[in-house]
UniProtKB/TrEMBL annotation:
Highest taxon listed in the record's lineage: Bacteria
Pfam families with a match to the protein in the record: OmdA
The organism of origin for this protein: Thermaerobacter composti
Protein name as catalogued: YdeI/OmpD-associated family protein
């Protein structure tokens, strides 16, 4: 929720209180989101091929933070065509070798 004035907060007070009550109930029930689930994404085959051809790329990949590796994998796997995946990987190799993330 975004508020720009006190009047907006006061107008939505019942809704805000309801959200807080629900959040407390979820916490007390021990429910929650397992953030670890879905973290380990499979490495695309095209990238595995590059690792085999360029051992320095594999070493640089392993040195990246898990978040950076995940961002790259999501970027690579969004491409539907294998050719597009290969092109994305090729364009990303210099950044990976420098230890930079996709958005650095």
């Amino acid at each position: 929720m975004r508020f720009t004035s006190l009047a907006e907060i006061e107008a939505k007070e019942p809704v805000i209180r309801d959200y807080v009550r629900r959040a407390i109930a979820v916490e007390e029930a021990g429910l929650g989101v397992d953030f670890a689930e879905g973290r380990d994404l499979p490495v695309p085959g095209e990238l595995e091929e590059k690792f085999a051809a360029m051992p320095e790329l594999k070493a640089a990949w392993e040195a990246l933070t898990p978040g950076r590796r995940r961002a790259y994998i999501l970027y690579f796997t969004r491409a539907k065509q294998p050719v597009t995946r290969k092109n994305r990987i090729e364009r990303s190799i210099p950044r990976i070798l420098e230890g930079k993330g996709l958005n650095d």
